[in-house]
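We read letters as residues; the fold follows as tokens. A sample entry reads:
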Amino acid sequence: MANLLEKKDSGQAPVVQREKNFPNFVKFESKSYMIPLIMFVLGLLFVLIQGNVLDVIVTILGVVLMIGGVVMGITLMTAFSPLTVFIASMLFIMGIVCVANPGWVAGFFLKVVGLCILLNSLIRLVTEHSLKGKSSKYNFYLVTDLVSLVIGLLLFLFPKAWLDGVSWLFIVFGVILMVLGVFNLYTAYKVYKEGRYVNDGSGVVWEE
């Protein structure tokens, strides 16, 4: 509270403390729960489909992108502009890549997701360090993010291994991703609730 009083006395605009409830968490903390949501959805896809089916989905997506590029180019021809040509061309090229090499695209997608999970886990580990000794659930947060970090590393380093794996391994990995996604969502919300956040006028920041 001392920081708040100092800012008020210095003539600056008063700091408004935002109530830390679930609606505000959903509205303002998308950076905290977006990766866990992606983990859950990806895990669900792993459970529902197999690697070869994922290739088929990428191929279909490629055809859609190619058609979208052509349609966009034709319909916007009267409003010709370099930006229009660039976007239509990129859609068409991306579609060709998806159709020509769906396995590579699927592997690249998993690599990107793995990198996002890895970076998110590292950031959360740094953020949660401030709760050490202050939260009874600190060890749970730590274990959850360490496991997530390992999963992200495996996805980033060996994306094709999961696509080419046997069906039961694909499903097991999907279930692990779903469980970690749920745990990370829970952890993100609890850290948000237990951490000391204030709105300093430029956004929500940690108050030491």
Observations:
- The longest strand covers residues 197-199.
- Strands lie at 197-199, 204-206.
- The first helix runs from residue 2 to 9.
- Confidence is low (pLDDT under 50) at residues 1-10, 197-208.
